[in-house]
Predict the 3D structure of the following.
Amino acid sequence: MKEVALKVQKRETGKKETKQVRSEGLIPGICYSKANEPIAIAAKPLEMRSVVFTPYTKKVMLEIEGGQNFDCVLKDVTFDPITDEIKHFDLQVLEENTPITVNVPFVLVGQAAGVRAGGVMQHVLRKCPITCLPKDLPSAVEVPVASLTIGKSIHVKDLQIENVKFGVPASAIICSVAASRASRSAGDAEANA
């Protein structure tokens, strides 16, 4: 799993205190753990970029001022609806023997035979919640598409990943290759000839 370091400071809770944190140019957040009480934290916007703006799920090596260190994952992030700035974030501590549910992206690997034949790749399901132990948590679920032909699709049930439970139905379509207009027109022309 890919990793990223994040240094944060502790903060006070409450609306007034949160507003103060934002006025100082920091982003308020919470670090949750099943073993401990939630810790109110604040991070610099520049430090948060590599945690939030990534196509992969990453392990966050959290360093809280005062010497507390945790391995976490990003559970939730709130954006300003007008400026798209990060307004708040939640981290979940990874606990060795406790399953965790995290949204993980599907990454298509290879070029589909159907695309080489003139079809169009349709990536339907881009992320999916998965539940597993932290040691089994992938940064992304790779989906091999090289053998995918026109009119065929890959479903969640087609993936064989050990120790991972998908949070969507097994029949959910991840991707498919559809005939393009040009390939359909060429096929119609041949049929009419």
